[in-house]
Design brief:
The protein has 183 residues and is mainly alpha-helical. Helices cover 86% and strands 0% of the residues. It is built from seven helices and no strands.
């Protein structure tokens, strides 16, 4: 590495250290933290590739802020297109599902859900309470133990017991549906 390269690297480092924090802060007004950092890295990478960081200080400052502004705009436009695509794809999948879904399918799924809810309701009271807290309210075992005034091990036992009972109920539901379909 020659002396000119070392000087360029030092100059670029000083420029980065001087402007990067303020540019990140500026970009974060429009995009998330990670995106802001990526945008700043890209702007400085382009600047390095242009080898134009020896421009007068005021010009480089304007250039950097304008580059960050344009990059944020491009990022946000891309995000809008990305979200529109995901929403459109999701809607199309739902439409396809509805088009190919027969009334029998709807009734069968409805019956399955009703049977499953009935099986949950038939669990012993404490077992049902623990199961509901764990699966529907997504609480941790320790939280459930504290709320129900039981040990964590008892919570685990209730969950295991509920799953075993529900497994039998679901198996019975599936057998009934299988016989209904085969008729």
């Amino acid at each position: 590495m020659n002396e000119n390269d070392k000087h360029s690297i030092d100059q670029f480092r000083r420029l980065y250290e001087k402007y990067a924090p303020a540019l990140i802060s500026f970009a974060r007004r429009f995009v998330g933290h990670d995106a802001a950092e990526d945008i700043i890295q890209d702007v400085f990478l382009k600047l390095w590739e242009l080898k134009s960081f020896t421009i007068i200080d005021e010009s480089i400052r304007s250039y950097l802020y304008r580059s960050v502004q344009n990059s944020c705009l491009n990022y946000l436009r891309h995000e809008v297109i990305h979200h529109e695509y995901i929403n459109r794809a999701s809607a199309e999948l739902k439409i396809e599902e509805l088009q190919f879904c027969t009334m029998d399918d709807i009734l069968i799924k409805d019956e399955q859900l009703k049977s499953l809810h009935k099986a949950i309701e038939e669990l012993p009271p404490k077992c049902r309470e623990v199961f509901t807290l764990y699966y529907f309210e997504e609480k941790k075992n320790a939280e459930i133990a504290l709320q129900c005034n039981i040990s964590v091990r008892t919570v685990e036992t209730h969950i295991y017991h509920a799953l075993k009972l529900l497994q039998k109920a679901v198996l019975a539901i599936l057998l009934i549906l299988l016989f209904a379909i085969l008729r």
